[in-house]
Amino acid sequence: MHMTVERVSYLHEAELNNFMNEIKHSFRADKPEEALEIQKAVTLVRSGSVESYSYDSSILTVHAEVTGTDDFDEVTLSFSNLVTTCTCDEPEWCAHRVAVIFHLYLQFNSLTEWMHDWRRMETEQMAFKITDRTPEAWSDVLSRLMNPIRIISLNENPAVFIHKFELIDQKSRSLSPFEYEWKPLFDVYYRLHALEAAWPYIYFHLGGSGSNFTYGKWYVKNWLTDQLGKLADGVKSISSKPRLFETDPFHDQLKVFVREFALNYEGLFDERFRVYQLFWQQLFADKFTREHELELLENSDSPDAPTLVAFFYVIQGRKDKLEELSKDITMEDLSKWLPLAYLAERDDNMDSLAVIMSALLPFIGDYLVHKVSLSQRAAFVRKIDGLLEAADFPEDEREKMFTYYGEIGVDVYADFLVERSRFREWAALMHRYRVVYEVAEAGGLKIALAEDPAAVLPLLHVYATNFVKERNRQSYRRAVNLFRKMKNGSKKSGKHEFWNRYIDTVREKNRRLRALMEEMEKGNLYL
Q: Is 493 exposed, middle or buried (0-12, 13-18, 19+ CB in 10 A)?
């Protein structure tokens, strides 16, 4: 019997409401596969794939065809006993059956409002569960909340990733506990779950070479920096207030969560270590708790566990244990142990810093060549030399390292020489690597002219000659300015005769350069 869709919907409004209620409670918005099935049904309805209705009034049954796939499927709805069947042979609800019911329902109702209520029901359930003050309840709710991040494709555009997280961020505000003293703890749990859910995506985008900059990588890096900053704020807020007795289970769970995050996740060790260090330096500071954690780490088979063990040896000042552990360091461990060196330097723990840098020293040259990108090498060399200086390494050992650095370490080596008033060697270094005048002037040139002008006269001669070769008046003026500095240096060194002969030679050699001669006359260069 032919009957319009509107008529069928009108006659069986009550039955359709029962079907919709059953669908609402059969699918959960927080389960990706179930949410996807509902979305597929909505897509079928809105693309016009539900068609060819026929109605049998004798048995109160509707037959409908659903296209939009490789083959069409036929759905049957029995309003008399509220039973549905589909030729796709799915035993439970399928997108085709849901689509037919949605299509009938929206004849006199808003499907968009129903979808909103369905999703809000899940949010209300999560909010209700948050009031159950247990770490298990919080973790369950936050894990469900992070599902859109957890299932995101690794190749997805970072702008989409940021947008999805912003939606989650908005949703989380209604879940935060009302009591002020519980809010920082909830935020810490929230940030840790965000890092856990997003970590595969973050590592995919940031775990490679740092030399290839993209805006997408910049988005992800900023997001990670923001999360780590907010996590640090939350931990600081918790540690600055008296601890509630009811929060003990939450703190115990945090120890497990942070340990697993540091040991079991892949890549970006600096960031994982930063999280671990944050909690164990600011929140879990009592001796018994740290000893228990150290015991667990010593019995762990994770490849990152020895580094965390070394972390406890550093903050506890156990130099002998640190020396024993450092004997097994390889070049692959250098990037993991450098954060420990920074920690020891920051805490003025020079004994631990000396142990760490002694263990790392044999691998620094190879690590620089094979592991550090070209754009980061200069900063790496400066950091390493700063750590060696802080660890009070002998100067000959520090200087020996500059042979490994090569040209990339010129700036640092130049500072090293200037600090020791070795200006002849500094000038030779500038000449050897053809350092431009502007860089030399910003470095040690002014100090050298003041303390040992004779040492840098040959270098200034090279710079002045180069300016003359540029053959323009502005360069001639720069050359004359250098001649003035050389004149003052010669005067200070008592080399009056030498200087006047030098000026005569320069004039004779360049007598055809009228503009240069004019500038030299203005400069009053004779002594």
A: middle
